[in-house]
């Protein structure tokens, strides 16, 4: 029996009449496989629009993913809705990199082409994440008319695709560049147009849309071949759930992107999430949706189904509606998303439940108080990032090793949830905002973080660019340092003054003076009895090695494994530095998993792509998961070099082999 919490099979199969062949002793003969016999035995299942067709699971990064029960009617209605919104025809051409276990990938990438009768090119999301150029290259090569993804995908293209690569692209065929699944940023749309317009991309191709698994996929979208619609509102009035339009463009205002309208007898209404009544014009409320695309509910979760799928307006009795948990308003008939009621954290298109992250944080170090923390997201430089606020146990306040606690939190979250922590605020005991019943107020924690009103023991950020978002606690932290008599790790940049941030001992200009310990394994080509030994190698030496030709160094018979190992250290340090993760070089341990340093799944894929370019040959997308430490990765790469060397030796003539051996012996 499949249950709502533990089931992993996404499809609901209809029972069909299959002849019992359990008593057949002999092998199948040609009559058993006769097409006419099989045709006669097949019985069409009895189905209608209300028959369950598929379980579409909500994002699996949550503790208990729920199976959304989609009927045949849901699939057909939403497929027709997408077909109409996108203006599809038999002449359309799709390119989809979204995975089939994501609603965009399954409904939009596989079922929609089947419904519309047009071809689609499917590619692995890993291929896209490794090299975003591959996505746009596929659009250019196959003359795709429809493709898209979450907002972060367009950001990746702008940041990762080079000018030389852009010169090879022809995006003139791209008619529908859909953008959904996470907050849509006007800045991203404008910047993408500016960067890729020379490649033939048109601003009118952008198609901002809104949807979710509970509505099969799409809920609303704009008009095809129309430019995105923006509204600028006063941000401070948004906190009061009021919409005040303005024409001024400054940091105190917020520009929102319209997600268009709904069609085909679906209805969107804005409701007061507490009073359960209709909102007046100009008021922000919860987005409620009704129509034939709305699922039956969650499999084997009757209470959650009643709460989310069976909402009625108390002032009119109208319903049932799907409660989306998202906040928004309607202006000039267009839907605008302003935020979320639910505490769901959406980073790079993936959903994360805060309670799961909070539990991971609180079990990462004994100094952290269980049940007294909050995880939430904030936007930094246009990207949703994860911030942790967490109380410290009173008994640890005077002996708190802040560096150790921060490192433990970052490592645990990266390993368990594959996301990077951007900011951590350690709070004094008993100070985290709670309700009268003792529940943590995540929204209040977020507001306290933004307004610098939390009672902070220490704060940390992965990037100096986020420093302006944090409270200046210099005086208080200096006093704490004096009281605790502890030395802070250089990567805790916020504990130091601005002059200290780039000073001696910090990862910056003085990196050349620091030293790291690198394990030197036995030489894999000659002395098999040589014991593993520890060799101190300065970063300067490694960087000097790094200036040599990589292939020449990797093919060196005497130093191949050691060279790979040393160069991997440098490459990973360079990657961490480029991504604003400030670690002391001494923190690099070649026997620890790379996720120890806060690398999430996307970071590992990007690092894998950089290693491919550096090494000069391709790596499997799972390489950094199968060989998660620098040590095991170096040994694997060394074995590849051995295989290549052996293959080359087999191609050599006896005279060439003699010549090579003579050089080695000399």
Automatic annotation (TrEMBL):
One of its GO terms (biological process) is fatty acid biosynthetic process. Belongs to the ATP-dependent AMP-binding enzyme family. The keyword Lipid metabolism applies. The keyword Phosphoprotein applies. Pfam families: AMP-binding, AMP-dom_DIP2-like, PP-binding. This is Carrier domain-containing protein. One of its GO terms (molecular function) is phosphopantetheine binding. InterPro entries: ACP-like_sf, AMP-bd_C, AMP-bd_C_sf, AMP-binding_CS, AMP-dep_synth/lig_dom, ANL_N_sf, FAAL/FAAC, PKS_PP-bd. Keywords: Fatty acid metabolism, Ligase, Lipid metabolism, Phosphopantetheine, Phosphoprotein. Residues 566-641 form the Carrier domain. The lineage of its organism: Bacteria, Bacillati, Cyanobacteriota, Cyanophyceae, Nostocales. One of its GO terms (cellular component) is plasma membrane. It comes from the Bacteria.
């Amino acid at each position: 029996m499949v249950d709502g919490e533990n089931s992993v099979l996404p499809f609901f199969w209809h029972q069909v009449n299959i002849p019992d062949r359990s008593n057949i002793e002999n092998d199948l003969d040609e009559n058993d496989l006769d097409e006419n016999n099989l045709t006669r035995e097949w019985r069409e299942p009895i189905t209608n629009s209300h028959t369950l067709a598929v379980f579409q699971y909500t994002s699996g990064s949550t503790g208990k993913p729920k199976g959304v029960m989609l009927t045949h009617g849901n699939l057909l209605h939403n497929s027709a809705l997408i077909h109409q919104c996108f203006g599809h025809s038999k002449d359309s051409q799709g390119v989809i990199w979204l995975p089939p276990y994501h609603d965009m990938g399954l409904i939009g990438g596989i079922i929609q082409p089947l419904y519309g009768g047009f071809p689609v090119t499917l590619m692995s999301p890993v291929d896209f994440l490794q090299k975003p150029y591959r996505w746009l290259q596929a659009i250019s090569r196959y003359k795709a008319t429809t493709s898209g993804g979450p907002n972060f995908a367009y950001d990746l293209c702008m940041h990762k695709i080079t000018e030389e690569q852009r010169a090879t692209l022809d995006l003139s065929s791209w008619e529908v560049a859909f953008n959904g699944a996470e907050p849509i940023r006007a800045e991203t749309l404008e910047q993408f147009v500016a960067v890729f317009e020379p490649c033939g991309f048109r601003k009118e191709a952008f198609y901002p849309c809104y949807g979710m698994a509970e509505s099969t996929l799409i809920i609303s979208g704009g008009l095809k071949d129309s430019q995105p619609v923006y509204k600028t509102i006063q941000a401070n009035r948004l906190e009061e759930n009021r919409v005040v339009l303005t024409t001024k463009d400054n940091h105190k205002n917020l520009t929102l992107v319209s997600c268009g309208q709904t069609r085909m007898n679906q209805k969107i209404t804005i409701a007061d999430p507490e009073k359960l009544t209709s909102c007046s014009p100009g008021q922000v409320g919860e987005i409620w949706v009704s129509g034939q695309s709305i699922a039956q509910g969650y499999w084997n979760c009757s209470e959650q189904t009643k709460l989310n799928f069976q909402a009625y307006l108390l002032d009119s009795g109208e319903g049932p509606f799907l409660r989306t948990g998202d906040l928004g308003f309607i202006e000039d008939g267009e839907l605008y998303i302003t935020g979320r009621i639910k505490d769901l954290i959406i980073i790079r298109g993936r959903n994360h439940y805060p309670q799961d992250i909070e539990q991971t944080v609180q079990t990462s170090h004994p100094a952290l108080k269980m049940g007294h923390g909050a995880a939430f997201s904030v936007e930094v430089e246009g990207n949703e990032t994860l911030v942790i606020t967490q109380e410290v146990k009173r008994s640890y306040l005077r002996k708190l090793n802040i560096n150790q606690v921060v490192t433990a939190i970052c490592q645990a979250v990266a390993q368990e949830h594959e996301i990077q922590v951007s900011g951590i605020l350690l709070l004094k005991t008993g100070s985290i905002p709670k309700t009268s019943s003792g529940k943590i107020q995540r929204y209040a924690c977020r507001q306290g973080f933004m307004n610098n009103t939390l009672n902070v023991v220490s704060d940390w950020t992965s990037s100096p660019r986020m420093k302006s978002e944090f409270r200046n606690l210099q005086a208080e932290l200096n006093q704490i340092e004096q009281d605790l008599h502890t030395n802070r790790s250089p990567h805790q940049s916020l504990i130091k003054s601005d002059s200290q941030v780039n000073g001696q001992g910090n990862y910056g200009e003085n990196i050349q003076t620091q030293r790291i310990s690198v394990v030197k394994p036995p030489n894999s080509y000659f002395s098999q009895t040589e014991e593993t030994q520890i060799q101190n190698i300065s970063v300067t030496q490694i960087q000097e090695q790094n200036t040599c030709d990589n292939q020449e160094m990797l093919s060196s018979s005497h130093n191949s494994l050691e060279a790979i190992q040393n160069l991997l250290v440098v490459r990973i340090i360079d990657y961490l530095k480029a991504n604003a993760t400030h670690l002391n070089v001494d923190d690099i341990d070649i026997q620890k998993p790379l996720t120890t340093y806060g690398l999430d799944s996307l970071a590992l894929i990007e690092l894998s792509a950089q290693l491919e370019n550096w090494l000069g040959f391709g790596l499997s997308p799972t390489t950094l998961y199968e060989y998660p430490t620098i040590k095991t990765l170096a040994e694997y790469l060394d074995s590849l070099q051995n295989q290549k060397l052996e293959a080359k030796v087999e191609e050599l003539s006896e005279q060439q082999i003699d010549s090579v051996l003579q050089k080695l012996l000399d």
